[in-house]
């Protein structure tokens, strides 16, 4: 297969509810949708970078630039027999993982559609439904948070993740645990703490959390090792893992017992599959993280979460949790805490092309011919 053309669209979607983490509040999603075309078929990918470099160094704007100036030129004229070859072709480019993943994802969807395979099938997924957890942002009061957790428990989510930040941590988590003694709870710090906060994490041990996600610096694996050795609660790494090589080092050091895979953060599907395999070999639990995706990125996430190594519920909540109207149809929906893995070719959802056109504020396309 040869890529004939690629179009990248930028759009802004208002979120139904603002989402606050230790690094800031998202009220809108500023994102890129990549369309890859070949033989009359279109594959779709989503760039998960945020508008500002608060989660990682990438932003929507840096991704647009890197895709246009560096990624697409390397794919021009390339004969692609399997989408795995895309990450190999892009490997000389350092990092810029979210930019690479957006393009690789579109090509993977295109290839799967042409091969008449679902994305899940093309990834080697085996489950026909995936368990879903909810990620809840920092709320102004404990009462607000308890209401939101209660609604999530009632909705059937299999695991509830609560964002924590200095000043909104131990007391708040104790209040939630007291209200929901049996809920499967975890906390995500988005790298807001240091080893000076060891006592906080030791105190959190008493709450029987499923895990604590990225407690320490975004680029650390050494201090996480010391933290994991000093607490019972499993440490999960998110921000610190950008590749299978990072995962190998973290596992070797004992820096975590769980890894959250985000396709964008690790540079694509091929790299995600390597991490899943490595974790399976080492008995490390894996789950699919989320970046407040539209239906396009969400469909990729649901497909990858169908792999055997994804042993814990992922942040793949239904569309209606985020958007007034998703850009795919049907929307992603949840039943009894699970999302069905589509079996139709590619994403398994159709993209609302007219809505995409209406939302697009700027775009660029390759001028290959
Ligand atoms: O740390 O997992 C995170 C959203 C944006 C950036 C980072 C994170 C998150 C989430 C939301 O937790 C997960 C989702 O519901 O998509
Ligand atoms: Mg996280």
UniProtKB/TrEMBL annotation:
UniProt record similarity statement: Belongs to the mandelate racemase/muconate lactonizing enzyme family. MenC type 2 subfamily.
Enzyme Commission number(s) of this protein: 4.2.1.113
Protein name as it appears in the record: o-succinylbenzoate synthase
Catalytic reaction equation(s): (1R,6R)-6-hydroxy-2-succinyl-cyclohexa-2,4-diene-1-carboxylate = 2-succinylbenzoate + H2O
Pfam families the UniProt entry points to: MR_MLE_C, MR_MLE_N
Tagged with keyword Metal-binding: yes
Gene3D superfamilies (UniProt xref): Enolase-like C-terminal domain, Enolase-like, N-terminal domain
InterPro entries reported for this sequence: Enolase-like_C_sf, Enolase-like_N, Enolase_C-like, Mandelate_racemase_C, Mandelate_racemase_N_dom, MenC, OSBS/NAAAR
Domain Mandelate racemase/muconate lactonizing enzyme C-terminal as annotated: residue spans: 142-234
Keyword Protein biosynthesis: no
Co-factor(s): a divalent metal cation
Alphabetized GO MF terms: O-succinylbenzoate synthase activity
The organism's place on the tree of life at top rank: Bacteria
């Amino acid at each position: 297969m040869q890529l004939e053309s690629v179009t990248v669209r930028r759009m802004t979607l208002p979120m139904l509810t603002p989402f606050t983490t230790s690094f800031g509040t998202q009220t809108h999603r500023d994102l890129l949708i990549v369309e890859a075309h070949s033989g009359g078929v279109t594959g779709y990918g989503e760039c998960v970078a945020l508008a500002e470099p608060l989660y990682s160094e990438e932003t929507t704007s840096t991704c647009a630039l890197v895709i246009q100036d560096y990624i697409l030129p390397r794919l021009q004229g390339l004969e692609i027999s399997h989408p795995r070859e895309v990450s190999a072709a892009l490997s000389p480019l350092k990092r810029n993982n979210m930019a690479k993943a957006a393009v690789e994802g579109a090509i993977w969807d295109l290839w799967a559609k042409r091969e008449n395979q679902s994305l899940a099938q093309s990834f080697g997924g085996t489950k026909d439904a995936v368990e879903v957890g909810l990620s809840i942002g920092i709320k102004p009061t404990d009462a607000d948070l308890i209401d939101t957790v209660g609604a999530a428990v009632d909705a059937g989510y299999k695991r509830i993740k609560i964002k924590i930040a200095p000043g909104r941590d131990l007391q708040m988590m104790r209040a939630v645990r007291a209200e929901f003694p049996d809920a499967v709870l975890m906390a995500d710090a988005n790298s807001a703490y240091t080893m000076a906060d060891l006592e906080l994490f030791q105190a959190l041990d008493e709450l029987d959390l499923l895990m604590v996600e990225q407690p320490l610096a975004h680029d650390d694996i050494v201090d996480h090792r010391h933290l994991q050795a000093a607490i019972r609660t499993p440490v999960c790494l998110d921000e610190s893992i950008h590749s299978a090589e990072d995962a190998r080092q973290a596992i070797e050091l004992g820096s975590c017992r769980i890894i959250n895979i985000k396709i964008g953060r690790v540079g694509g599907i091929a790299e995600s599959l390597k991490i899943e395999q490595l974790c399976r070999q080492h008995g490390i639990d894996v789950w699919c993280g989320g970046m407040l995706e539209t239906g396009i990125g969400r469909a990729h996430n649901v497909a990858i979460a169908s792999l055997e190594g994804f042993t814990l519920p992922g942040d793949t909540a239904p569309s209606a949790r985020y958007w007034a109207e998703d850009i795919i149809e049907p929307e992603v929906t949840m039943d009894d805490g699970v999302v069905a893995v589509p079996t139709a070719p590619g994403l398994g959802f159709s993209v609302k092309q007219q809505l995409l056109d209406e939302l697009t504020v700027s775009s660029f396309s390759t001028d290959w011919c």
